[in-house]
Specification:
This protein has helices at 2-19, 23-31, 35-49, 54-71, 81-90, 94-107, 110-119, 126-136. It is mostly helical. Helix 4 (54-71) runs parallel beside helix 6 and helix 5 runs parallel beside helix 7. The N and C termini lie far apart (53 Å).
Length: 138
């Protein structure tokens, strides 16, 4: 029982404060970035999407989606569309294909959305199908 209490307390100390972090402070941290950071961001994310390491690629997929969703007016992520389409077509992990579909939706170019509709003819994973068909029906 003591160990459970110690584990719970340690978990709260380590992660509780991060979980309680104010989203406004996260937004403010990005607002403080320099113009050159924003200029280089699409290239850096695109490079990470091309990484051979699947962990790096998964983080890049999440970051592309985040920045397209929350900072789309500030950063042009169209550079990532060809690689996102490759991931959506050929990634062995269904989760990566699904994340690529979500990122394509958030970038939202007509070409990307047309390609998502085409990809759905071949997708077999049920979650990726639901996500892709929802995007294609927009």
């Amino acid at each position: 029982m003591k160990h459970l209490f110690a584990f719970t307390l340690t978990t709260f100390i380590l992660f509780g404060t991060a979980a309680a972090q104010n989203p406004t402070s996260v937004q403010a941290a990005y607002e403080a970035r320099t113009p050159s950071w924003w200029t280089n961001l699409p290239t850096n994310l695109s490079d990470d999407l091309h990484a051979a390491d699947q962990g790096t690629q998964a983080v890049a997929l999440q970051n592309v989606t985040y920045f397209a969703t929350h900072h789309g007016e500030r950063v042009d992520l169209r550079l990532a569309v060809p690689k996102l389409l490759d991931i959506a077509r050929f990634a062995s992990e269904p989760a990566h294909r699904t994340m690529a579909l979500i990122a394509l939706n958030e970038i939202g170019t007509p070409y990307a959305l047309e390609q998502v509709a085409e990809l759905m003819r071949f997708e077999r994973h049920p979650i990726a199908q639901v996500v892709g068909r929802g995007i294609a029906s927009r």
